[in-house]
Amino acid sequence: MPTQTILVTGGAGYIGSHTVLQLLLGGYHVVAVDNFDNSSETAILRVKELAGEFAKNFSFSMLDLRDKCALDKIFSTTRFDAVIHFAGLKAVGESVEKPLLYFDNNLIGTIILFEVMAAHGCKNLVFSSSATVYGWPKEVPCTEEFPLSAANPYGRTKLMIEEICRDVHSADSDWKIILLRYFNPVGAHPSGYIGEDPRGIPNNLMPFVQQVAVGRRPALTVYGNDYKTSDGTGVRDYIHVVDLADGHIAALRKLQDPKIGCEVYNLGTGKGTSVLEMVKAFEQASGKKIPLAMAGRRPGDAAIVYASTDKAERELNWKAKYGIGEMCRDQWNWASKNPYGYSGSKDSSN
Ligand code: NAD
Ligand code: WQD
């Protein structure tokens, strides 16, 4: 197969940077774009270093997806075989406070991307959706056929973009679109050189645990220990970010299938892990004690969410390889080497 050239939006972000690296190592040519709203240029520099000789197949442009002229220029200079679309805002709480920001950034950014892609005849897309579209699932594992709902404006942007994708494909069957519903991405590249570096107070479990381990926060607040789960704490499907990145390469391969239209796949491990089990695994991997503060349930949280992985295994020929031990090992390797993230400085992180 001839070398493919892929545009990655949000390529400096957590999942984007790991995916760009896996693409380069897999022989793809990659152009990444990002506005650094929630990321750092250092991530791009480190991806280039990790890619070694493959870095010659990589270029980066700083732009906001809503800047149609800038995006158009990128498409005018390069012919893309497909786009992987990560760029978006993702903080649930912030989306409740600033819904218009989320609708503007996530929806308008995606619509402009669609318009520019269509204008340049590139109609192959992989989109970052989320398990959040299952809302509060009545049962587990979540299959792709489950009813969809959104619990907050962030989730609504994912649901709306999924609907936009289905409508775009119904209107023009030249479009081939794969919607990937990620469960809970954690961990970091095994080199410890790239990883997740959230701005401000982390919203998600593992970035918070990691900041407690390096002494940036005194204790982890456990949101709820009265769920109907083995130890009372919430259960999720944590997936290693490198497995997730590889899932995108499987999706790109699937886009070659002439029968593909607009198709959706869960990317998870199919295994549920509680908050306390995850903390224990991290303590084992890091040798650090994580002090806990028990608190009430976080509003909006579901008790148990994990994926059915059958469809992705069957149709994408992809399966997660890593377990929570490896996720925690790599998360700790990244955290211990970069306790203050990419900035490296206590003063520029909070
Ligand atoms: P991230 O914030 O690290 O990466 C997103 C990147 O997009 C950032 O680098 C940000 O600067 C960039 N960006 C945002 N708006 C942009 C715009 N208008 N123009 C250009 N760049 C823009 O987040 P992530 O964890 O890597 O998530 C990537 C995608 O996966 C997001 O769409 C997110 O909603 C989705 N997702 C993430 C998770 C998760 O838990 N991390 C779970 C499910 C789905
Ligand atoms: C996991 C578990 C918490 C933090 C969120 C988004 C979802 C998706 C993934 C993007 C829960 C508990 C957490 C803490 C805790 N993102 N927890 N103390 O809620 O499954 O999903 O990220 O699409 O849309 O909602 O992930 O990591 O926030 O929480 O006890 O400080 O950890 O209650 O049981 P969640 P999470």
How are the secondary structure elements laid out?
Elements: E1 5-9, H1 14-25, E2 29-34, H2 41-51, E3 58-62, H3 68-77, E4 82-85, H4 92-97, H5 99-119, E5 124-130, H6 153-171, E6 176-182, E7 184-186, H7 205-213, E8 220-223, E9 235-236, E10 238-240, H8 241-254, E11 262-267, E12 273-274, H9 275-286, E13 292-295, H10 310-316, H11 324-337
Parallel strand pairs: 1-2, 1-4, 2-3, 4-5, 5-6, 6-11, 7-10, 8-13
Antiparallel strand pairs: 9-12
Helix pairs in contact: 1-2, 1-8, 3-5, 5-6, 7-9, 9-11
This protein binds nicotinamide-adenine-dinucleotide and UDP-4-deoxy-4-formamido-beta-L-arabinopyranose.
Task: Please explain how this structure is put together.
Belongs to the NAD(P)-dependent epimerase/dehydratase family. Keywords: Carbohydrate metabolism, Galactose metabolism, Isomerase, NAD. By secondary structure, the chain is of the alpha/beta class. The protein has a seven-stranded parallel β-sheet, with helices on both faces. A two-stranded parallel ribbon has the order 7-10. A two-stranded parallel ribbon has the order 8-13. Helix 1 crosses helix 8 and helix 3 packs parallel to helix 5. The N and C termini lie far apart (47 Å). The chain binds nicotinamide-adenine-dinucleotide and UDP-4-deoxy-4-formamido-beta-L-arabinopyranose. Nicotinamide-adenine-dinucleotide (NAD) binds next to helix 1, helix 5, strand 5 and strand 7.
